[in-house]
Write a structure and sequence with these properties.
Number of domains of chain A: 1
Largest interface: A-B, 38 and 38 residues
Largest sheet of chain A: 5 strands, mixed
Helix content of chain A: 40-55%
Number of helices of chain A: 5
Number of strands of chain A: 5
Cofactor (chains A, B): Zn(2+)
CATH architecture of chain A: 3-Layer(aba) Sandwich
Structural class of chain A: alpha/beta
Strand order of the largest sheet of chain A: 2-1-3-4-5
Keywords (chains A, B): Hydrolase, Metal-binding, tRNA processing, Zinc
Protein name (chains A, B): tRNA-specific adenosine deaminase
Radius of gyration of chain A: 20 Å
Shape of chain A: elongated
CATH topology of chain A: Cytidine Deaminase, domain 2
Oligomer: homodimer
Strand content of chain A: 15-25%
CATH superfamily of chain A: Cytidine Deaminase, domain 2
EC number (chains A, B): 3.5.4.33
GO molecular function (chains A, B): tRNA-specific adenosine-34 deaminase activity; zinc ion binding
């Protein structure tokens, strides 16, 4: 999970929501990813999605049985879908995502017995670190917006004080 | 849907499960895709996934509000996820997928009121054409396997008839 947190920091440094992921196979990292959705304007560019498709390329197969995924935030529906399809064995995730999490929060898509593969889910792994990184990111965004608003208000006030003559 | 069926035929011609999709925006096709999972050995290469990410590139945005998706088979979990995320307005799909369909068969992921976007779903559009294409594909595969099995059996029989001297 330390490696996934490193990836998350890379996303944060680029102004993306700080989420990171790695895929491990036979004790080695075969895929890394960090959230790049805004920068690439591509809806598929979630951290774990990038890590999984990189692992597909590295191993030359769309199937990843016996692989583990480490991701700092609970996967969404799309990412749960690719995890289930690739037959990844274990998912270790950090913070819960109450609004969009599809592994424990809104759904339990990785443990559905009707599907042809089930995944072992390990929730809350280094959750506090992952969560505080996300909270700080959103707090910074709110503060930046507040500062921009204040600056606009001050500019309008100073314009209204100008003597029209 | 005719354009999506054309895409599906391209997949079938390459020995992939014949599924095709197009994304339409302002009356124009902005993304096309056909299933390429086996050829590319990449789990993300479903028809509608390719069409959606192509539309992201064409329009320079990961959001696709007011776009329509036409796909010959009911989307899986992963594809329902990217559809929901991109804010596509309408999904028209052909055949149901009772084993993995996440739009009507196993789940109704596109109409969940807890998520931040809901999609209008139009099921069964040219379902018979899409379905018969899929059935024919799987029938051909079964027959090819049967022929290969028969040939192996005949080869073993002819070997056993050879006089050991």
């Amino acid at each position: 999970m330390a490696a996934a947190l490193v990836e998350a920091r890379k996303a944060g440094a680029l102004g993306e929501v700080p989420i990171g992921a790695v895929v491990v196979y036979n004790g080695e990292i075969v895929g890394r990813g960090f959230n790049m959705r805004e920068r690439l304007q591509d809806a598929s560019q979630h951290a774990e999605f990038i890590a999984i498709t990189e692992a597909n390329r590295q191993l030359g197969s769309w199937r990843l049985p016996d692989a583990q995924l480490f991701v700092t935030l609970e996967p969404c529906i799309m990412c749960a879908g690719i995890i289930q399809q690739t037959r990844i064995t274990d998912v270790y995730y950090g913070a819960d995502d109450p609004k969009a999490g599809a592994v424990r929060s809104l759904y339990r898509l990785l443990e559905d017995q009707r599907l042809n593969h089930q995944v072992y889910v390990h929730a809350g792994v280094h959750a506090e670190v992952a969560s505080s990184m996300l909270k700080r990111f959103f707090k910074d965004i709110r503060q930046a917006k507040k500062r921009a608003k204040q600056q606009r208000r001050l500019a309008v006030e100073s314009l209204s004080k100008v003597d029209p003559q």
